[in-house]
Amino acid sequence: MWVIVAWCFAIAGIVFMIYMLVYIVRVVPKLGAPCALVTDPLLPDACIGTCPAATKTFCQPVTTRPYLIWWTQAATCGCLPPLPPLIPPGLTPTPTP
User: Fold this and answer.
1) Does the reported pTM lie above 0.70?
2) pLDDT digits (tens, 9 = 90+) for 44-77
3) Secondary structure of the chain in the HEC alphabet?
């Protein structure tokens, strides 16, 4: 009985390793490419790539769509400016000693 369980874990581990290797081979070359949407059948879709350095923008989702039940995934990507700080205007944070 334990031999069957061990074989099931071994096969599942091999399948997982192959899946992750294929995912890495698909995603890593796109890290230096322009901002684009990377789709995946199991993992949520993501925005991967670079934006022009002169614009000081980041590759971020422009729109999202549902993923599973309560999560979201990227639907379209674009080069957007960074989000503003969460400090209200007129207030300055006090440095901590």
Assistant:
1) no
2) 999 998 998 888 888 999 999 999 888 999 999 9
3) CHHHHHHHHHHHHHHHHHHHHHHHHHHHHHCCCECEEECCCCCCCEEECECCHHHCCEEEEEEEEEECCCEEEEEEEEEECCCCCCCCCCCCCCCCC
